[in-house]
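Before the break, one more example. Copy the sequence into your notebook; we will annotate it together after we see the structure.
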Amino acid sequence: MTRLSLTLLLAANLFLPAAAWAALKPGDAAPPFKTPAALGGQAFDFDLAGALKKGPVVLYFFPKAFTRGCTVEANAFAEATPQFAAAGATVIGMSHDGIDTLKKFSREECRDRFAVASDPDARTIKAYDAGSLMPGMASRISYVIGQDGKVAFTHEGSNPLRHVEETLKAVQQLNRRR
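Here is what the structure looks like once it is written out:
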């Protein structure tokens, strides 16, 4: 390997989010959690175990409510919510944002179609290896969790639309395996 190649490789590794190296893998147990969430501007307590009784869960982490990429992603998940519901899946987004911010985000950007959860202490974000190098922000990572409580699919990347496309495909494949 040339010195330039080695330098470029090392430099690239410095700029990858920590989650890129540590994300949960398919087959890993999904850490259970309960946390405040909002749907249609109303706060409630979200419980992963309860949601899994109804079907698979798409848990997506996003950096910060009302930022450009997070708004695009929330709008896309909102538009795809009927397809996720038809596949029996629950969608929930999660960030460091406080519940008051997420109440507004759930109305405006999630269009009252799916819930967003607050994790201001980053307990769940850490449990899912979704931390970011930016303080107070999660990385953009999505998980599909099967009813067995195991991670069925993981997607990382900066393109918010790909998270919706890839998790929907994964949920549909999960249904075909049943």
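The CA atoms of residues 77 and 164 lie 6 Å apart. Residues 4-21 have pLDDT under 50 and may be disordered. Try to locate both features in your own notes.
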